[in-house]
């Protein structure tokens, strides 16, 4: 049975309106919300294990676009401020930007001179030098030498699984977990996340120094029920859009039945239990917050006025940027424009009735 393949999982890199670079404002809102956690973690790490001349940082799932250098800048900014306050010489920073090999690393590399120029302009001689390298590969595999990393960061990535779970072949009429899915489907998705996240923690524990810190944020769900609206509505509406095309004869129903996403929204109880059972890290803090589907509806936009069609289009572009490569691979490129036109309409109608939000789980950990 053909399913969504992680081998074609990459954000849209084409220089056009539907690229990830032009449609990552929702992820930027998540980064802004987690910035206080990032600052506090770096400050605490420096107070406990000041590493001397060079701090090594990994950003896992960096993608390509305006968000790629956000964590590195904030980390450098925090380090410079702390060192000024304590009259320390600012250390050098080595940042490893990781994503799958299909990621648009060429654009990332072309952006490095601009990032360095911004650091020089903002920090002058007060900040240390920042060295940036790309590390293509899955974060479900080893990426770095033993005991080499001081800080690991990942935002809006760990809800993507290493593969579509086994045992979801009978999930007909759905592309993800839904109220009509069988218990076997729920269990298969939950088990795949448990295996993937446990492996992720074990691999990072091999790569990090004792006392190193890790900050993760991922899309989860607000309650233990795996059919909660903040978990399933996004994909239920995409399924509905696919069946609109089935009704028009543009898509085969069997193709929808055979497509399942390598994605999972855990609840915080699942995340906590896996961290505790795996045992490599001490859980310092776990927080949950919400962000609206429409990135324009945020804490910083006080003049926001809901417009059904615009909100639907905004969110449809976000989802298209993240899933188009998989949908192209399975259904063919010819249906994509029609699919997301329908999806934008369904999302707009949904948001006019109910302001469903994304639940974001933030985890701060220390390496044992």
Write the layout of secondary structure elements.
Elements: H1 25-49, E1 54-60, H2 70-86, E2 92-99, H3 105-123, E3 130-136, E4 149-155, H4 183-207, E5 208-220, H5 229-247, H6 253-257, H7 268-278, E6 281-292, H8 308-331, H9 336-353, E7 357-367
Parallel strand pairs: 1-2, 1-4, 2-3, 4-5
Antiparallel strand pairs: 5-7, 6-7
Helix pairs in contact: 1-2, 4-7, 5-9, 8-9
CATH architecture: 3-Layer(aba) Sandwich
N- and C-termini, Cα separation: 42 Å
Order of helices and strands: HEHEHEEHEHHHEHHE
The gyration radius over C-alpha positions equals 21 Å
CATH-derived topology: Rossmann fold
Secondary structure tally: strands:
7
How much helical structure, as a percent, in the residues?
Answer: 40-55%
Please report the first level of CATH classification, the CATH class. Alpha Beta
Overall pLDDT score:
91
Share in β-strands: 15-25%
Total count of helical runs of at least 4 residues: 9
CATH superfamily: Vaccinia Virus protein VP39
